[in-house]
Amino acid sequence: MSYKCIYNGTILTMNEDRHIIEKGAIIIRDREIIEIGDCKELLSKYHDCEMIDGKGGIIMPGFINGHCHVSMSLFRTLGEDVPDRLRKYIFPLEENIVDEKLVRVGAKLSMAEMILGGVTTFVDMYYYEDEVAKVTKEMGMRAILGESVLNKKTPDSHKPYGGIDYSINFIEKWKKDDLIIPAIGPHATYTNDGEHLLKIKDIAHKYDVPILMHLSEMDFEIERFKNEYGKTPIEYLDSIGFLCEKLIGAHCVYTTDNDMEILKKNRVSVIHNVGANAKSARPIAPIHRMLKKDISVGIGTDGPMSGNHQDIISVMHQYTKFQKVREGDRSIASALSAVELGTIRGAKAIGLDKIIGSIEVGKRADIIIIDTNTPNMLPLYDYYAGIVYGAYASNVTMTMVNGKVLMKDRKLLTTELSHIYDEVSQMKDIILNMIKS
To answer: Other C-beta atoms within 10 Å of 80: how many?
Structure first.
């Protein structure tokens, strides 16, 4: 068996008591945490470990990106500041450009960014998800991956709702993998009808997999359901019996008080994508109120074409400030609550809190180290505030998933960045030529 010891740092366990261990150490056997405690005590007990020095920094659970579209990194900075960009720019672009190679290269680029920024688990929905799964395994990350389902032809299906058949094959292929959790991803309420949504729900229950969906995100979405059904999208989904505990709903920016009661009743999780929503001039989702109602909430970056980055530290920072502005109360949305959303609450929102999200005996060793001996982090009186208000993604110096070190001292260990950059440069030329033609 392989043993590792992470030592000489302050451990933010994010366990139920939010226990902090200064001068702590963690013992890992293969993929599992087996002991946590005082550094001197554990170092005297374990001698034949691979030693990972925390160098006085913060040792904590890896961050969870609850909603993204990793392959869209290759579209970053295209079509910026364009009104109704989804329908007028993104959909047409995808129809003409997206293929297996683009998905693969874009996924590598995003995963490199996430690993370097301390993200250990992400939730993705896009096309050719089998390619995303392969890259995830190569890079060593943990992920929930859902094939997108739409009422029109897509890059990987020549018929409307072809994503359903793709999803079934994808789920059956990856269902027993240790790092990949397959899912099914109906794109949105306005791209899936009620009949197919209920079919998707049946598939999710049959295979016991999550459902990923954009929910109450668009102004035209709200207007359509008001005009056609006299309901909000969430009220409509409740009326047809679609909502359930398997649904992970992204955005939910147009959420009413009644919507929140419905989400709570049906145990639907919400992923807050504050940076991407703000950039699109969307309302600020009422996350503080959702949390008070005990709705399960996580945070995400959205796609790199929407939020432009895959950095959860900056999302935590934005979450606190936007909620304070929304509610007019600087005492809410604390730094601790932000770290919770990025770790243990985020894990609960995607149904993985039994195995990740906190540093506890028996959980998987998804762990990061944050360097605190930098100008932006000193002096450090409050660990949570230091992370949320002071840290950059570049402060992360070690990222581990399932007991395997993926990045150490800012160097990726499972891939070569230079190779990714070369592939991205080639894809950029292809994309530019296609756009010009």
So the answer is: 11
Q: How far apart are CA 118 and CA 62, in angstroms?
A: 6
For the entire predicted model, the pTM comes to 0.96
What average pLDDT does the structure give for the chain? Answer: 96
Q: What is the CA radius of gyration of the chain?
A: 21
Domains of the chain: 3-61+365-412 (2.30.40.10), 63-349 (3.20.20.140)
CA 230 to chain centre: 33
Nearest residue to 225 via CA among 188, 190, 187, 260: 190
Reduced to 3 states (helix: H, G, I; strand: E, B; else coil), residue 12 is: strand
The span from the CA of 25 to the CA of 23, in Å, is: 7
Amino acid at 222: I
Is residue 216 classed as helix, strand or coil in its secondary structure?
coil
Q: Could you report the per-residue pLDDT of 108-128, keeping only the tens digit for each?
A: 999 999 999 999 999 999 999
**Is residue 245 within 8 Å of residue 211, measured between CB atoms?**
no
Question: What gap in Å lies between CA 311 and CA 313, rounded to an integer?
Answer: 6
Would you state the torsion angle of the CA atoms of residues 199, 248, 393, 306, taken in this order, to the nearest 10 degrees?
60
Contact 172, 130 (CB under 8 A): no
For residue 2 the two structure tokens come to 């392989």
